[in-house]
Amino acid sequence: MIDNINEIIRVAKSWDRKTIYGVPGCPKETCAFFVRQVFRTALHESGIMRIAHSRPYYLQNQIPQLPTNENFADGLAGDIVGRKIRPDQMQPGDLLFFRDTYRGDFPAGSITHVGICIGAKGLMADSSGGQCHVRDAHKTFRDLLVEVRRPHCLVSTTRMTGTAISLKNGQITALVSGAKQHRLDLVIRFGNPVSRRVNIGTPQGVHSFGSFAASGSGSGSGSARKIPRPQLQHNDHAAGYGSGFGSGGAGIGGGSGSGFAAGHGGAMVGGSRGLQVLIDGKSFPFKYVTLDIDNAANGNRLKLFHHDGLTRVFAGGNEAKSLDLIAKMENGILHLWINGKEIGTRNANIRIT
Questions:
Q1: Is the CB of residue 285 less than 8 Å from the CB of residue 275?
Q2: In whole angstroms, how far apart are CA 264 and each of 26, 198, 204, 246, 317?
Q3: What DSSP element (H or E) covers 38?
Q4: How many other C-beta atoms are found inside a 10 Å radius of the C-beta of residue 79?
Q5: Using an 8 Å Cβ cutoff, are 58 and 163 in contact?
Q6: Can you tell me the distance from the alpha carbon of 153 to that of 1, in angstroms, rounded to the nearest whole number?
Q7: What is the pLDDT along the chain (353 residues), one digit of tens a residue?
Q8: Contacts of 119 (CB under 8 A, 6+ apart)
Q9: Which CA distances in Å does 318 have to 61, 200, 290?
């Protein structure tokens, strides 16, 4: 959504005329660190970008490609971070790459600086030698712009396209490959589709979702109703995960229930650690998956991010090792089950591309 781009702009501008030295992990050369810091602050876990060890710019221009890391400008200049776009398509949130902005032990033509587009006509936020700026990229680095990239983490969270379910302010939208749906069964599984139950406190070697207090009944308007949990193949649900998500509410749009409450019973252990997406019972191809669901009762949030082969799940700010989510949308009503328990929420966003 546009809100994500606005947040990137806000965070980037907040650094203007300040020094980034002093932020934990900040290196001597700060341009790439600044970009990564802005995206992490604005988009949280989904703003984490990989290191681009393969950089097409060097191959296309026959420039020797030296090793890079997360603190080098060209460590962001790869397809694993974002797709290349034409400069005339530049928009806020895009990464701008410049060559030969200073001398060093690298070949002529090398990418030596990166900034973030935050406005029209090349307005850019960047950092050099610890000092952060908001300035005109074209005037500052005249004729040195060599590449513009649109980060995958931004695209996957800003547009309602592809395959998605969105619930906001009581409005539900569902798409599959861009086509609007009136009913949809979606399953997302990560980390232990499997095998056996164990009795827990917190079993050794198994990370729980963290404790979620059962803070009273959910509320709100809507025609939510309790329906039986769908039958799952392969006995995929155990009776809770660690202290995961607990007693179920009566669906979306309101109703009773405590949502993300303290779980009880068995934990899922063993099995595959991969991410699986099923739509209407069939495996669905994907490259990027983002999931953000909040709890109507106590404000805890569940997030999942799958970008460039890396999957991370967070519940209430704690990283989790497993997730089994079912979303069933029919007749304008959305029901969600997390690890076998139906929960209530007023806001949910799931994107699959």
A1: no
A2: 42, 11, 16, 7, 20
A3: helix 31-43
A4: 14
A5: no
A6: 12
A7: 466 888 999 999 999 999 999 999 999 999 999 999 999 998 887 788 999 999 999 999 999 999 999 999 999 999 999 999 999 999 999 999 999 998 888 999 999 999 999 998 789 999 999 999 999 999 999 999 999 999 988 765 444 557 888 887 677 888 888 888 889 999 999 986 443 322 222 223 323 333 232 233 333 333 333 344 444 433 333 333 333 333 333 333 333 333 333 332 222 322 335 899 999 999 999 888 988 888 655 667 888 888 878 898 888 878 888 999 999 988 778 899 988 888 888 888 898 88
A8: 9, 92
A9: 44, 19, 17
Distances (CA, A) of 174 to 106, 215, 327: 49, 30, 11
For residue 42 the two structure tokens come to 């604005």
**Planar angle of CA 8, 55, 159, nearest 5 degrees:** 35
